[in-house]
Amino acid sequence: MTIRPAWWPQFPLLMNDKPKSPWGSGGNDDDGPRNPWATPPGGKPRNARPTALDEFLRRARGPGGPGGGGGGGFPGLPGGASGRSLWLIGAGLIVLLWIVFTSFHVIAPQQRGVVTFFGSYSRTLEPGFNTTFPAPIATVTKIDVQEIRTEDFPEGGSAQNLMLTGDQNIVDLAYAVRWDIVDPQDYLYQIKDARGTVRATAESAMRSVIATVNMNQAITGGRVDIEQRAQALMQQILDEYRSGVRIQSVAINKADPPASVIDDFKLVSAAQQKAQSDQNVARTYEQQVMARAQAEAQQFDLAYAQYKLAPEVTRRRMYYETMETVLAKNNKTIVESGGVVPYLPLKGAPPRIAEAAPQASASPAPSTGGQ
Known about the structure:
With 371 residues, this protein is α+β, with helices and mostly antiparallel strands. It has helices at 11-16, 52-61, 83-103, 184-189, 194-210, 215-219, 223-241, 262-309, 311-327, 356-362; strands spanning 104-107, 111-117, 120-125, 128-131, 138-144, 149-153, 162-164, 170-181, 245-256. Helix 5 crosses helix 7 and helix 8 packs across helix 9. The N and C termini lie far apart (219 Å).
């Protein structure tokens, strides 16, 4: 139960007070309402308590600013959190992120990670999740060992790439070299410019092989042998350099004479092809004649073997076979004996003379014996 004092004894006192303006009295009732922004009478503000704006400005100025306290701090933060503590927290977060991003490494299946410890080679990371010391204590360089790289000669494919053959001819050769990385450590630290080294090695090896073959081999049927020899020579040189590079293949795309003499070379090539065709025809005819002669000689040997066994019979059989062969191609007339006059149809006989018929009819008939 709350006991409230009676208010009516104080009612006369309230009635005796003069009405006050909401802005307070300015010290002289005849002057009207007082300016709310003016200093109250007596020169002392009514409320000495600092406002929220004053507190914000004081904290923004810091401990060294005018009106600032000794603790300092930042606006909106608890008074106990000093600038030094905030700097330590920020530095700790940065160090933590630096350790996370430089100590944990994910190596893809087609990659290998080469680790250096204070700049010296340490080990090679296999595919998967790996950890190392943070940088710069340890650094990791990722190398793609499954990518097949291709080098074209000449680069761009528009210019000529002239080479001298073993028979002192010039050939325009265009080829491609495919290579990959087999040892990441040697690839990074044994050679400075891997791509330039591969190109220089390929150019040197191909020119060395072309110098040992003639032009016909380089242009026509010797390409496969040239490619294999060039690949083996390139791999040998790169292994001596410890480059960590493996040559996958060498492919010749074009092998032609120089553009200035290509028309004349086509004429020479056509003549060579015709000569080769004529030689093939002559060899075919030679083989046929030799086969026929060998067959006839074999038949003669068989006939001679039979002749030695029965000379008379073999001689007569050979005579009959020969006459059959000769007479089979001529017209034959068979005359039988016995006084029969055969009819001989003589082909191609000369026609009878027309004047001979009247003379034969004018001659006197033979006498029959009667007078």
